[in-house]
Specification:
mainly alpha, 113 residues
Length: 113
């Protein structure tokens, strides 16, 4: 989940219907190195969905052996269902999701010549 704590309430509500599918963990901590960080860095809520570590740290991950035949169909269906619900729920809000405040750019002091 995004480090933007303001989004937590909506995410908890959106996630609850998927508890019976085994999706129960919500956290604001990050594992780092994920695609959501680029969104988070510019103040947009970025979501990191935790995946099961099945075959994640094996020799196949991010290699030429990392091909579709290693996919787990039930996991893909579960994630597609959850992500589509998140996208739908976000699109139906009357207001944008809350953004975290970005750091102010440093003031550049110009030399007087």
């Amino acid at each position: 989940m995004s480090s933007c704590k303001l989004v937590t309430q909506s995410v908890n509500i959106w996630f609850k219907p998927f508890n019976d599918m085994g999706a129960k963990t919500i956290t604001s901590s990050t594992t780092g190195g994920t695609d959501h960080l680029s969104f988070d860095a510019v103040g947009l809520p970025g979501f990191q969905f935790i995946q099961d570590p099945i075959e994640y740290a094996t020799r196949t991950h991010h290699t030429t052996m990392d091909s579709y035949d290693h996919l787990i169909e039930d996991d893909l269906k579960q994630m597609a269902t959850i992500i589509s619900a998140f996208v739908y729920n976000a699109s139906q809000r009357t207001e944008k999701l809350p953004r975290k405040e970005l750091p102010k750019p440093p003031t550049i002091q110009r030399a007087n010549f």
